[in-house]
Predict the 3D structure of the following.
Amino acid sequence: MCRRGDRSVGQDAKDFGLTGTTVRDRVGQAGIDAGERDGPMSSEREEPAAPRRENRRLREDVEILKRTTAFSAKETR
């Protein structure tokens, strides 16, 4: 809606319960993704985050397994 020019960023932000900065950032990123502006596309920005997310999930899995192993060891004694 903001990109069409029908409404201001402030109006859209208020209607959706967002901050003006968030809406402006999203509108700017949409312009980049559409090839209207220079900058890294959304897909390029998410590439570095994917391995970090996976690493965090694996660390959580290892922690759960450690706790489960410790609990099982206590129960068998």
Summary: Residues 47-77 form one domain. The chain has a mean pLDDT of 85.
